[in-house]
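Sequence in, structure out.
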Amino acid sequence: MEKKYLLAKMTWPEVEEILKETDIALVPIGAIEQHGPALPVDNDAHIATEFTLRVAESVWSKQKVVVTPTIAFGYSPHHMQFKGTITLSESTLANMIVDVCKSLEHHGFKKIIIINGHGGNSTAISNALHEMNGIVSAKIFSVDWWTIATDKIKEVATRPAFHACDMETSVAWYLDQRVLDDKRVDEPGRSIIPGFVEPDMLAPPPRASTAFMMKDISESGVVGYSTKATKEKGKQIADVVLERLEEFILKVAEV
């Protein structure tokens, strides 16, 4: 299918025309940061982009959407001990999100969905949404791809699920990311406060949080069991993510 939903590939008159058919824009956002020895540093941006493009294609016949270029850089200072990581400050990222959304609103997009690929971006996204609330008339939503499929991740992935782990490597692999098979490693990570601050997004309560550097919990940059990753696991998780993203887009269209 011709990717008619790509904003970056449209001329301005084409954007004007598509706005007669849809007021929904999807904005993928990721990060450029280390993902251990087996995954490239663009992994979060790659996953966010692929999920956004694939859901735009699957939902197109039911609801047209427009996909913006990916905000590739994210908030990743805790990965700067590993080469290749490029981080924005949290305020820069939040301001960038605000500027992108204001630009989209200016042109007539009334519903904007941010599809996030990096957990470290969450505070900046939240700050941006709160800053725009009551000022920007467009309705803006944010979705972390992993949070809408936590039940499936718990079912198929080896814990801990944290960074460049079984879950993330499986999903990346299925989404056509470059994976160096022979460089995958297993490193479960070190607890910061055992039983309270654990490097595992699926850890049950009680939970607390703190700032940390990745070297505090991992030597390789991996927290999890990337050797357990398979494309089949990735497909199972990705199918759920895409199904629920599509469902969400269709519900947003009704607002």
